[in-house]
UniProtKB/TrEMBL annotation:
Gene3D superfamilies: 3.30.70.270, EAL domain (3.20.20.450), PAS domain (3.30.450.20). Residues 132-182 form the PAC domain. Residues 60-113, 176-222 form the PAS domain. Residues 600-854 form the EAL domain. Residues 458-591 form the GGDEF domain. This is EAL domain-containing protein. Pfam families: EAL, GGDEF, PAS_8, PAS_9. SMART domains: EAL, GGDEF, PAC, PAS. InterPro entries: Biofilm_reg_signaling, EAL_dom, EAL_sf, GGDEF_dom, Nucleotide_cyclase, PAC, PAS, PAS-assoc_C.
Length: 858
């Protein structure tokens, strides 16, 4: 049938028209009066059918969309190439991206870690009619990742094969797994898992502890069945197939609360366990593949009456019961043994009579309250047995349960004598220095405070004792020798003081003695002299003998302080001054000494700013050839002039600088100034004068000395031979690789290295041999006594012999007489310095001395 001509419509739909307008087009066609009636009716029926189909399709689409978006997990539709065709609301929320940013993109936009051919196994599973499951990590819009389990299945979408992927967020499950593992680790019940072959898969810490397995050893390491014997509750050996885990695997059901004994043959230990075994099935399996066992240690509950009696005896705990009407006292065997096996009390009053008077009243009062007010009690009581000997008991008691009339009281008695003894030991240890056995700091402070508060005491004195040269021995021979020295010193002090005072190790190598001041304040001084006498003999270590003396400061209350800390502080100040002045002596605290302490603080304050204020200068003492008196070198000596303090000699401020640490900065200044002066003399045409500079031990340790010296020499274009560095003997004991490298580096520069004041300290030849040094300086402490003092002569001869045997140069210090010069020449000492030749000279005076020597041909 042809379309009528002249119709307004060329067809039902114009090309490109929306299919949704088809029902309207059918309606317009049916309204055409030129069409036959049957055709118009057919068009109307078609319009109605089409409208119904569209309505049903719209409803189906709405149902699909509602269902699609109602799924709480992210759901995505993928085409065959992995392009995302659709994404539900949950997916947009989970990935933190708008839907339009994902639809049309490859699935890699959600999971950038997927391999290149990741869809191959997916389609393989789909073609086999199965769902593909995998755990991967997806990415949110902000780049953060989260674990998911993806289930992928195939379906047709709009007539073409597609994939639907449901992603389940595993974050909470992973956190739950972590919490589950943490719970397993902190549970006090043992948990063990083993497979059907008896191999242990897992054991929590409680399982290892309950089975006596050492830390670091796994259950698998101890699973050798031959090491264990299973014990039934009746004490007979239990067959292995009767064990709860074996039964649970065999029967496929839970075996609850079974008492099992496990005896370890090698360790000879028996464990009684209450075990519940739970079989575990694999997914889809009908037989258990492993079993989980939960168990608790019930060894303490597995005791019969005979064992219980033995436990009472071992724990020293017995029971008692009192008939309140008759005062009759019933005691278990252990309770009777605690109170006296030969004559245990038969009544409560008899027991009370065994107690000390104060404890009798306490127990009577507690018993009365228990009978009248139904109150329990817990008392520690001390008494004496009828057969002799003291006892300490802990008595716990109260009304018997279920006795409303309170006709009986019962409880326990525990022997706590050992605990009281241990408490006494702990109290003593809390007051005792563990190394020396003397009182410790807290104990002596407490005792001093009590003495100063006691009005019956006429006066109290504190002796503050410090060991001279202890640190040197400790550094030379090590801490073990230092501890041995402290123990020996403490013994000597204890023997010297005796009952005259209390002694404490106050810290390090410092001791404190608290005693009565005595009549005319002479008692403390006598104690101090006795202590000094005790240090008259040397201390021997490894066949070496050391002279260790003591410096003592004395302060007395109330004149020198009305509080413990003040008294101790002032005694410390007196000790420090004694050590500074004389050593091996004692000194009383005085107000003048307090002023001296303030002066010391003042010196240290000015010393810290001395370099910045240009207050230091150097003088140079000539080192001469003892035969010709020709000047061959100079030693740089520091001097300090402060506008407020005046001229300060080195022995007045070097110790301060050492104690404050300023010596490191001062030493660096001296080194640079000495090199600058040597360069100035050279530039004046006086030649290259070697200048000796002292290096502090703290400077040696606290600085890269070799690098610093190299830099200073380079600054003034000096060769290393223009510089000599003098170290104290303390450096000899530093046998560390860094020390040896430093000395080697200095020697490679040509710097002369010597040991100053050799012979005053502990100078092991082994140390001396290993260090690459050039010479020794013989201390003026010994030079001053020659040639008359035999001991000084012997020391000088020994040092000269050491220098010759090791091929080292030797310089004598402190030469003040012609007799000393002749003696040293005869001894073979080539070089010396001292007032006989010149004191420390200003740079210009030293230069003049050099010129005069040249003019005279020296």
């Amino acid at each position: 049938m042809s379309r009528p001509t002249g119709s307004a419509d060329a067809g039902l739909l114009e090309p490109g028209a929306d299919a949704a307008s088809l029902p309207d087009a059918l309606q317009r066609a049916a309204d055409d009066p030129d069409l036959p009636g049957d055709l118009r009716a057919l068009l109307l029926r078609s319009r109605e059918a089409l409208f119904a189909l569209r309505t049903e399709a719209d409803a189906a689409h709405l149902r699909y969309q509602a269902l699609f978006d109602a799924v709480p997990d992210p759901v995505s539709i993928l085409d065959t190439d992995g392009i995302v065709l659709d994404l539900n609301h949950a997916g947009a929320r989970a990935y933190g991206r708008p839907r339009e940013d994902i639809v049309g993109q490859p699935i890699e936009v959600l999971n950038p870690d997927l391999p290149r051919d990741h869809l191959v196994p997916v389609w393989d599973a789909v073609h086999r009619g199965r769902t593909y499951v995998i755990e991967v990590t997806n990415m949110r819009g902000d780049g953060s990742r989260f674990p998911v389990e993806v289930h992928t299945a195939g379906f047709e979408h709009e007539g073409r094969p597609c994939l639907v992927a449901v992603a389940r967020d595993l974050s909470e499950r992973r956190e739950a797994e972590v919490r589950y593992r943490e719970l397993m680790d902190v549970m006090d019940r043992g948990i063990a898992i083993h497979d059907v072959d008896g191999r242990f898969v897992y054991g929590n810490p409680a399982a290892l502890r309950l089975l006596g397995i050492r830390q670091g050893t796994s259950l698998g390491d101890t699973s050798n069945l031959g090491d264990w014997v299973a014990i039934a509750p009746d004490g007979e050996e239990m067959p292995w197939d009767a064990l709860p885990p074996v039964r649970a695997l065999r029967e496929g059901r839970i075996v609850e609360s079974t008492l099992v004994g496990l005896y370890h043959r090698m360790r000879r230990e028996l464990y009684w366990l209450m075990v519940t075994a739970v079989p575990q099935y694999p997914p889809g399996g009908d037989r258990p593949h492993q079993v989980l066992s939960l168990f608790s240690d019930v060894s303490a509950l597995k005791r019969d009456s005979a064992m219980f009696d033995r436990v009472q005896a071992l724990a020293h705990i017995g029971g008692w019961e009192l008939d309140c009407g008759t005062d009759r006292l019933y005691l278990t065997a252990e309770a009777a043994h605690i109170l006296g096996p030969a004559g245990a009390p038969q009544t409560m009053e008899a027991l009370i009579e065994l107690l000390l008077p104060l404890d009798r009243g306490r127990l009577r009062e507690a018993l009365g309250a228990a009978m009248l007010e139904a109150r329990g009690f817990d008392l520690e009581l001390q008494g004496t047995r009828e057969t002799g000997g003291d006892f300490w008991v802990r008595a716990i008691g109260g009304p018997r349960q279920g006795d409303p009339a309170i006709s009986r009281l019962n409880g326990t008695l525990q022997d706590i004598a050992r605990d009281k003894h241990d408490e006494a030991i702990l109290r003593a240890q809390a007051r005792t220095d563990p190394l020396t056995g003397l009182l410790n700091r807290d104990a002596i402070l407490e005792e001093l405070d009590a003495r100063m508060r006691d009005p019956a005491r006429a006066g109290v004195a504190v002796l503050y004792i410090d060991l001279d040269r202890f640190k040197f021995v400790n550094d030379a021979l090590g801490h073990a020798a230092g501890d041995e020295l402290l123990i020996a010193a403490a013994h000597r002090i204890r023997m010297a003081v005796g009952c005259a005072g209390s002694i404490a190790r106050f810290g390090g190598d410092e001791f404190l003695v608290v005693c009565d001041a005595g009549v005319r304040a002479s008692h403390a001084e006598k104690v101090a002299n006795t202590i000094l006498d005790a240090f008259g003999d040397g201390f021997r270590f490894d066949a070496e003998e050391f002279s260790i003396t003591a410096s003592i400061g004395i302060a007395r209350a109330p004149d020198d302080g009305d509080r413990p800390q003040t008294l101790i502080q002032n005694a410390d100040a007196a000790m420090y001054e004694s050590k500074r002045r004389i050593r091996n002596g004692w000194l009383l605290f005085t107000p003048e000494l307090a002023q001296s302490q303030q002066d010391r603080l003042r010196v240290e304050t000015h010393l810290r700013r001395a370099i910045d204020n240009a207050e230091f200068h150097l003088v140079y003492q000539p080192q001469v050839d003892l035969r010709s008196r020709r000047v061959i070198a100079a030693e740089a000596l520091i001097r300090w002039h402060n506008r407020q303090l005046g001229e300060m000699r080195p022995d007045h401020f070097i110790d301060h600088a050492e104690s404050t640490g300023d010596i490191v900065r001062i030493g660096a200044w001296v080194l640079r100034e000495a090199c600058r002066q040597a360069a100035a003399w050279r530039d004046e045409g006086l030649g290259l004068v070697r200048v000796a500079v002292n290096v502090s031990y703290r400077q040696f340790l606290g600085d890269d000395l070799a690098a610093h010296v190299r830099g200073v020499l380079a600054e003034f274009a000096l060769p290393g031979s223009a510089l000599e560095l003098e170290f104290t003997e303390r450096v000899l004991i530093e046998d560390a690789p860094d020390t040896l490298r430093t000395f080697a580096a200095l020697r490679d520069m040509g710097v002369q290295l010597s040991i100053d004041d050799f012979g005053e300290g502990y100078s092991g030849l082994n140390y001396l041999r290993r260090l690459p040094i050039h010479g020794l300086k013989l201390s003026q402490l010994f030079v001053g006594g020659v040639p008359d003092d035999r001991s000084d002569v012997a020391v000088c001869q020994a040092v000269a012999g050491i220098a010759r045997s090791l091929g080292l140069g030797l310089v004598a210090e402190g030469i003040e007489s012609e007799a000393q010069r002749r003696f040293l020449i005869d001894l073979g000492v080539p070089v010396g310095q001292g007032f006989l030749f010149a004191p420390g000279l200003a740079p210009d005076d030293f230069a003049r001395r050099l010129r005069e020597g040249r003019d005279q041909g020296l």
